[in-house]
Design goal:
The chain has an 8-stranded mixed sheet with strand order 3-2-1-4-5-6-7-8, sandwiched between helices. It is elongated and about 70 Å long. With about 270 residues, the protein is of the alpha/beta class. Helix content is about 50%, strand content about 15%.
């Protein structure tokens, strides 16, 4: 099967993680990728990078992977050159499809929200589009498949929640791992050992949850014997739904910021 031709406008940490996994998985050939960025970065051998978009025919897909605040600058610099591209993918947090359509003329526009584990093929990619037909959706989904779990979202409001849950979720989870390790070290474990134990515990537990045929809530109850030490710890987390309340407020804060960024980009 022919490798899709792909242009990336900007390629920072997230774009670079996606790019490396595409190349490593064989989903996209390195010589089918062109990147326009401000300075050269280290990419897989064969990937081309320059200060401007290449001449010649448009590619199959273009992905916008710069900072959301640069959208007007990029539209002024490259909007005319990108006019008519079959599929425009945007990973710009908070920038709605309508705002993209005001600035770029494309056959279809698809919003994508990846998270950092896409770099090892274990990420999440949320997708949303009002303009993409079945063929375009299938093309984008196939491109994203090597990155991890791919989920289509039905509307913009839900896409903002997905952005907060999955896109920002790794940062929240890293905070939890750090806090779990800190709790162990506060109660006497050496710092480095506590961190190793916390990371390994979360890694194994996540793999088990992914393979299980029951919910994480049921798994938690299976670990906790009545009257045992685990149950005593869960009682603290479950008291007045303190953990759920904290996470709802965490996700709500991220959704609120996405909404603010969307308004700024309109």
């Amino acid at each position: 099967m022919r490798s899709p031709r792909l242009w990336l406008v900007g390629c920072g940490n997230m774009g670079g993680a996606m790019l490396r996994q595409w190349v490593a998985s064989g989903a996209v050939a390195p010589d089918a990728i062109d990147i326009v960025n401000r300075t050269d970065r280290e990419f897989p051998t064969g990937v081309r990078q320059a200060r401007d978009l290449p001449d010649g025919d448009l590619p199959d897909m273009v992905m916008l992977a710069m900072k959301p605040q640069q959208i007007d600058e990029i539209a002024a610099l490259h909007g005319d050159r990108l006019a008519g591209v079959p599929v425009l993918i945007s990973i710009l947090a908070g920038v709605e499809e309508a705002a993209l359509a005001k600035r770029f003329r494309a056959g279809a526009i698809v919003r994508a929200m990846p998270n950092l584990p896409v770099g090892i093929g274990k990420g999440v990619v949320g997708l949303y589009s009002e303009s993409a037909d079945t063929a375009a959706r299938d093309q984008v989904a196939a491109l994203m498949a090597p990155l991890g779990l791919v989920e289509w979202i039905g509307d913009d409001a839900r896409f903002n929640v997905l952005t907060a849950l999955a896109g920002s979720g790794p940062a929240f989870l890293y905070r939890f791992i750090d806090a779990l390790a800190a709790a162990g070290s506060t109660l006497g474990l050496p710092d480095e050992q506590a961190e190793r134990l916390a990371v390994a515990t979360v890694q194994g537990s996540a793999l088990l949850a992914a393979a299980a045929d029951v919910s994480p809530a049921i798994l938690a109850d299976r670990v906790a014997s009545p009257g045992g030490s685990t149950r005593e710890g869960l009682n603290v987390l479950d008291r007045e739904d303190v953990l759920k309340t904290l996470l709802v407020e965490t996700i709500r804060a991220s959704v609120r910021r996405n909404t603010e960024m969307a308004a700024a980009a309109r």
